[in-house]
Queue: 2 jobs
Job 1
Amino acid sequence: MAIAKEKLIWMFRTMTRIRRFEERVAREFADGNIPGSVHLYIGEEAVATGAIAHLKKEDYIMSTHRGHGHLIAKGGETDKMMAELFAKKTGYCLGKGGSMHIANLDIGMLGAAGIVGSGIPIATGAGLSAVMRGTDQVTIAFFGDGASNIGRFHEGINLASVWCLPVVFICENNLYAVSVPTSCSLNIPNVADRAVSYGIPGVVVDGMDVTAVYEAAGEAVARARNGQGPTLIEAKTYRFRGHFEGDSGAYRTKEEIEQWMTKDPVNLYKAKLLEMKVLTKKQTEDIDKEALAEMDSAVKFALESPFPEPEEALENVYS
Ligand SMILES: Cc1ncc(C[n+]2csc(CCOP(=O)(O)OP(=O)(O)O)c2C)c(N)n1
Ligand SMILES: [Mg+2]
């Protein structure tokens, strides 16, 4: 599949922005500016980027506790994201959601979710909604390898298949659910192999290679948009940092992490773009500098924003 130059550059810019956002979040969290906990997407940038590259603004995504990258790729503004993480009133959810609960329907972000696997049937519901309203909207559900062992995975994908809904299910298999390796939680080599039991395509893709993800997701999104129903994609990837910031990481070896870091998706893609002469070294450096400056201004915006007032605590809350 030939990818338009503009799209190739968008993907590099997006991955770079995700990486720089997450690095900055790590620093701000360590400095005590972010309450609660944060789960960073560093190492997995190619998955959100290559998949969301196919979506239109009105399409939907459903995210996870590790959701910053999905939101940035879907058009999230990093100042409002940073403010939300800082629990400030100018954040996407008025500072009441935090890292794990950002939603913004204007850009099709149905939400992130702290309850593992809970987003999968929500994505199925969004697919049903698109069909009932007669739109051509596609929904992508992101979830982890751990979530693929939760009952909602079966319920959500089975129903989407039976009703032929326009949903793409993307498992980000980073080999661990907190400290549990997939070797202890799965008795099959690939999560994607489960697709056969739903009668839908199951595709394994190298999640460190953004163009590979782009190709696999392109077919799946086209199928969904053409009324051919869901696809299960499994992207093999790795998180370079702990499960959450502050994780001791005692369950992984330094060698394993170093080995995966040789496949850094941002570096690999940069090398590819230089080789293809899509960008010059100077242009990649400029994109990186812009991303760093963007995160400086996002942090400034968050720091200078007010906290919500105590009397606003019950506003915009529903149950
Ligand atoms: C239903 C449920 N069970 C357990 C937890 C605690 N928990 C939070 S993240 C996580 C692991 C999720 O692993 P995975 O789905 O592979 O996502 P990853 O963190 O690797 O991106 C667990 C068990 C939870 N939040 N929700
Ligand atoms: Mg995982």
Job 2
Amino acid sequence: MNVVLMLFIVTGLAGVLFWGMFSLSSLIEKKSRASLTGMLFLIVFSIAWFGGLITFHPNDYILAGAIILIAVPALLFFLPVGKSKAMKITAITEKVDERDTMFAREEYQTGTEKYNAYYTMRPGNKQIDDKIRSLPELLAPGGRYYDPLRSGYIASMFKFEERHTTHVDGPVNSVRQNVDPAEMSRILKKSALHLGADEAGIARLNPYYVYSHVGRGPETWGTEIRNTHPYVIAFTVEMDYTRVGKAPGIGISEETALQYLNAQKISITLAQYIRDLGYSARAHVSGSNYQIMLPPVAYDAGLGELGRLGYLISPRFGARIRLGAVTTDIPLVPGKPIEFGVQDFCEKCKKCAVNCPSGAIPSGGKTMVRGVEKWQLNIEKCFPYWRIIGTDCGLCMKVCPFSHPDIFIHNVLRAGIKRSSFARSVSVYGDELFYGEKAKFPEFLE
Ligand code: SF4
Ligand code: SF4
């Protein structure tokens, strides 16, 4: 057998293997359209490649031409083609007030002292917030997906979290251990993973990512937040692919509550451990006791990039994550932000914007928001939709091509997307072809 023929057969077998694995993985993921389309590609490719060889006995020049036809796009897919785009962050000079976040604003009950104080300070937010307050509450009767049994189960997880929000801080051991920053960083990241985190990183805490004033939780509303910790340990917890795939609905809310619970356990335990070593540490937990904005600190810690949908996108799980963090003064070695093609991919892909039922995700370009150039999610459009359906929505998280499972076949494609602009363009079209552009769900806003 000559070399060209051997290469032709090897190339053909690689193609069969790829499409076979893609189709099988999609079947396991219960993505019938992707599985069937993958199977079709497998059949057409096999017939064209090996059927052509057996039927026409092409000469070496034709075989070499066919190999080049496959090899060139494959190389373009995996080699560093085109420029990767980094997130642009200029000098940040302004803090966010936690009282202005949507989850704080929805809690201001009409006629209360907090309500009067807030809308005297921010009269422009009153009209939209009153409208949101007139909608059913999350997990309460009236929401389209309200389920008397399962909604109560989710609410019980949130109640548990709220009961533990006071455990975020505590006394620091007066005997301080000497620690090596590099070793301590390794130990803390490893401990976070051991406790159940899926990815962990460390960053220098940018003081502008600390909220200016308390807006929720057990601490006094409106108090100035004074967190001067120099470091933050940030981590992700993966949300289950199948449950996210059921968005919007009660299933994704169950998963959100569960992963918040996990993140709370991890961060409170890590903070306790650091305080026992003789250093100050504070956990930042769901159930409304954050002092910092988690997406930008997670970005600084190298856990992902901000995508068009407004959340952090992790290289392994895409948008299917919840975040947690501990701030501390224990000496650590900070990591660096990472780039894996998200900015360029999101410029080409608008799947989250196309699928967002409330029109909260911009389909155009980025805007400069407090020194960060990003796609700005309109939370005043997103959150009312949550109140209408009575649960998390999560459609953007579900349809995002980065959210596919963390398995070999998707990781092969992610490797290309990270390096090559050609791979990013092909993958945007590929995702639409194999998974469809629009997710199926009842569009209640209509
Ligand atoms: S959660 Fe739903 S409503 Fe909100 S931005 Fe995502 S898709 Fe839109
Ligand atoms: S759906 Fe597309 S545009 Fe939206 S965040 Fe994901 S990759 Fe970016």
